[in-house]
Amino acid sequence: MGHTWLGLMARTPRNTLSADLIVRTALELMEAKGTDAFSLRGVAGELGVGPMALYTYFRNKDDLYDAVRDHLMGLLPAVPSDAPWPDQVRAVCRSLRLLMLQHPCLAQLLAGRPLSGHETARVAEGLLGVLRAAGFDAETAARTHTTLFTYVLGSTSWEIQMAAERRDPEAWRRLRTSMESLSARDFPSVVELAPELARTTGGDEQFDYGLDLLLAGLQLRTPS
Amino acid sequence: MGHTWLGLMARTPRNTLSADLIVRTALELMEAKGTDAFSLRGVAGELGVGPMALYTYFRNKDDLYDAVRDHLMGLLPAVPSDAPWPDQVRAVCRSLRLLMLQHPCLAQLLAGRPLSGHETARVAEGLLGVLRAAGFDAETAARTHTTLFTYVLGSTSWEIQMAAERRDPEAWRRLRTSMESLSARDFPSVVELAPELARTTGGDEQFDYGLDLLLAGLQLRTPS
DNA sequence: CACCGTACTATACACTGTACGTTAGGAGCA
DNA sequence: TGCTCCTAACGTACAGTGTATAGTACGGTG
Fold this sequence. Notes:
The structure is a homodimer. In chain A, 65% of the residues lie in helices and 2% in strands. Chain A is mainly α. Chains A and B meet through helix 6, helix 7, helix 8, helix 9 and helix 10 of A and helix 6, helix 7, helix 8, helix 9 and helix 10 of B. Chain A binds a DNA duplex through loops. Chains A, B: InterPro entries: Homeodomain-like_sf, HTH-type_TetR-like_transc_reg, HTH_TetR, Repressor_TetR_C, Tet_transcr_reg_TetR, Tet_transcr_reg_TetR-rel_C_sf.
């Protein structure tokens, strides 16, 4: 039987199954077939195992989601240490965005669940450390962290969502026609700016534009 | 049979069923039981009708989601016309946030689908009009609109999600213990700022903090 | 009245997550 | 070695889901 080790029960796998293997297989399936098409039965089948075998390692589907999310967060690089703090903040935000773009399922994994897990905490630690080192007080650092995080999350999720929509020709066609059916009298600005709106939905420039707005506002509050 | 009227086919309802009634019933169910527990069979049952009856008015579940979203967007007030443009922008963002808080399902309805529908266009028109009137060029207005929208969406969605988590005692307890199990040596800032982080997750002050950062950055780019 | 389009029904299918009870095989001890 | 416990994994089953397909009955129009 498994011995307790540092207070944690190390289960004795009898077969090739393990929590880490399940997480990696789940991640593969999410990236191959999309987060929506992901199912416990799918990953169990991929592992050649009954659906209920997964419940030995995860208490339910959400628990597996959390594990996959934390696994992905572990791929984030460390904060560059030799740079002015605005550049450090920019680097953290950009690398989170990049990770979300490389693993689109991360957007949905981050959206619906609270943050937990060691890797996730490590990321928060990096950003909070930069802000504290820059001299911001506790409350401002926490507020800024939340603001930056929700901006990156919202902005990049939106970008991923729109990119997916653009790939579906049927949905994209319906979106175009519904856009073009708007009367130029009732919606002058929307109709006039339609090309710009389409062009500014996503992309590095759009992301940096918003990030620069936030950082510019933040630098006005730079402590001493 | 129904006659075509202004190019739109007006179907002849035989019973009390109608697209608007379905949307209102769906909205009621979403707010009562949560967006996740919502189902087509649920709203059909509420209306005393078979599940397939809804497919006469909506092509699928997502189509119904879009209709509910646009219905909610129609509740947004018009932009105040007699105010400096930063106050107008603030008002638009705040009223969208308020609507999302009053109707938590709106967060999920906005997150997963592209924007379409007349009421949604009306909201975009309001914000874009303010930005154009303030003198911003087309590209900057579009970029700013996208930035503000994604900030409001991400920030308020996060707030709603965390508030829901806090109401579930089981999930909340697990979150607390996972937070407290973090070593103060590995995560000094997270542990030190834990109370601030908990306090700054949501609330008007947190929202306004980020919004003010954005607006401060934007005012640095005010045209002439 | 006859007819036809259509609002709605009934049935069915392929799925989902997961609760419950069972089986089989490794580990520890007599 | 043989006994016992623990537990990883299995099998079955259930209550749901969205929706494809075929059928039914009713209202407006000829």
